[in-house]
Amino acid sequence: MERRFVLQRTKRHKDEQIMTNYDITIHTRDKQQVSFVCSEAEDLLSAADRGSILLPSQCRKGTCGACVATVTAGTYHLGEVSMEALPEKAQARGDVLLCRTYPRADLILEAPYDYNYIRFERIPEREAEVMDVTMVATGTRRLLLRLQPDEQGGAAEFEAGQFMEIQVPGSDARRAYSLANNTNWNGDLEFFITLRPGGAFSTYLESALVGDRLNIRGP
Prior knowledge:
Low-confidence stretches: 1-16
Helix content: 10-25%
Structural class: alpha+beta
Largest sheet: 6 strands, antiparallel
Mean pLDDT: 88
Oligomer: single chain
CATH topology of the largest domain: Ubiquitin-like (UB roll)
Distance between the termini: 61 Å
Strand content: 25-35%
Order of helices and strands: HEEHEEHEEEEEEEEHE
CATH class of the largest domain: Alpha Beta
């Protein structure tokens, strides 16, 4: 009897490891499309990344709303999201956040942006040194980073409106912040960051020191 139970439990465990894959198609605002495969255990944004399709996104935590799209066909599971980023009315009409959406069938979605906003090459990951951390207003700090020279050079090249993701030291979490300065040869990246009580990166900034090294991703 005991042996039969072990055999049945082992078979059930093996069955649980089999994941179903689904075809995902996203239509852009200008009538173009991208397609990729996503398993039922993976969110759509991560699956697209794995296929080197880098869709517009920021927080990847279901709180900013940058990765919104509308499901027009197929079923899915929507994980926990901020009601500010995705209100109930939006959810009722099929709006989802790609970072919190898990397919339960082949999906067709419509994105609110044009095809040229999608990237098909890896976003650069660099190391930067903290050059200055200054309180400039109540609850706001200026953070100045300088890129460390590598095979990509040492200049800070970006366009107005772009942002960087900064990794929280000691964690895999990243936080996205808009760049406040202009492109430059020194490799300087300037941010003005509003501190959030209990926020992961805000907590780090309270004790950040000049000379700290941070991993960054972008622009």
